[in-house]
């Protein structure tokens, strides 16, 4: 019987869907496949349930969640409180990237709103439904490592940021740099996705510190270059391989929480931020 609940964001396709498929194999876990589109989410759930053994199919359900919508996050929170009571495992997988060399202020804002601010808003909204000893896994990216910032002073500010307000300020500076076309001389890379993922990574590190007193492990993970829509189906890895480390982190034994938390992971190994 399912005694734990797992919530996966952006799970109607790609790595998120494979994360749900992997967790569904665990008899003790009920998994919520969430998606911003009710139609795409329900279609993905129906297809997945048809592919799973009946007992596993019964342990998976759908709920709508658009991580950039305040109303949607609040609606999901109320649903989760009522239907799940607690979220033992939260996997923030939803993410977005423009294709090719798309570049602009609105585009930078949208990318940051989704990958960083959306993820942070979901964590903040669900945080108190995660029990002591729970797990939060953020699917970040190696594209968001500190080394993408070549300017030492700017990198130092990222590395030593201790609050969401400081991260908001840094992402705002990037957007203003894009607006005035001064981003390069101020030390920023030409990557909206990279900066959004850097902010998501650094937020994960800060959240891990905040939740340490409750023994909630918060881990950041890179799934590797996967064969998904985001990667225009050119990645060499199947999405199921990208799902492996997030699920592995989410279900490490309780005794391992301190080893997991506040770290960046790839292929079941720790890497520098
Ligand atoms: N693929 C790679 O090589 C790679 C490498 C490093 C990191 N990642 C990260 O891995 C995660 C999964 O990516 P993927 O490769 O599986 O890409 P994907 O197939 O494009 O899936 C992304 C998922 O996120 C959802 N999403 C986007 N915006 C959302 C929002 N506002 N609210 C809720 N869901 C939203 C998408 O929903 P729709 O279907 O409605 O668009 C989709 O379900 C992302 O965080 C990505 O940055 C991927």
Automatic annotation (TrEMBL):
Ordered alphabetically, the record's keywords are: NADP, Oxidoreductase
Pfam family name, one: adh_short
Is Oxidoreductase one of the keywords UniProt gives this record? yes
Q: Which GO terms describe its molecular function?
A: oxidoreductase activity
Give the matching InterPro entries: NAD(P)-bd_dom_sf, SDR_fam
Q: Which family does it belong to?
A: Belongs to the short-chain dehydrogenases/reductases (SDR) family.
In its UniProt entry, what is this protein called? Carbonyl reductase [NADPH] 1
